[in-house]
Amino acid sequence: MLDNAIKFTPNYGKIWIKAWDEGKNVHLIVADNGIGIPSELIPKLFMRFYQVDASASRKYGGAGLGLYIVKSVVDAFGGKIWIESEAGKGTTVHLLLPAAR
């Protein structure tokens, strides 16, 4: 999540990492003011090998596995993950994980 925020935020952009208790869970966010993601593509982001820009001349590296792996780990712990984004305005990735007690 942090790697994506760094990769898709231009120089001198901002990235926030926050975490807090939320009931019996920990809510973690990684947010940025980077390039953002069109809303119609957000549901596909957790698919294995999916990349928003899959063209041969794409600017950003990666295999399209990062968010798929994150979601798999979150699911294994019984948590939730979701993304809020708007093209040109940035992205916020939310993780809700059961807190260890």
UniProtKB/TrEMBL annotation:
Q: Which residues form a coiled coil?
A: none
Q: What is the lineage of its organism?
A: Archaea, Methanobacteriati, Methanobacteriota, Stenosarchaea group, Methanomicrobia
Q: InterPro entries in the record, alphabetically?
A: HATPase_C_sf, HATPase_dom, His_kinase_dom, Sensor_HK_Regulatory, Sig_transdc_His_kin-like_C
Q: Which domain of life is it from?
A: Archaea
Q: For this protein, what reaction is catalysed?
A: ATP + protein L-histidine = ADP + protein N-phospho-L-histidine
SUPFAM superfamilies of this UniProt entry?
A: ATPase domain of HSP90 chaperone/DNA topoisomerase II/histidine kinase
**Domain Histidine kinase: where?**
1-101
Listed Pfam families: HATPase_c
Q: Where are the transmembrane segments?
A: none
Instruction: Give the protein name, as stated in the record.
Output: histidine kinase
Cite the EC number.
2.7.13.3
Please indicate if the UniProt record lists Transferase as a keyword: yes
GO BP annotations of the record are: phosphorelay signal transduction system
Keyword set for this entry? Answer: Kinase, Phosphoprotein, Transferase, Two-component regulatory system
Q: What GO MF terms are annotated?
A: protein histidine kinase activity
**PROSITE patterns for this protein:** HIS_KIN
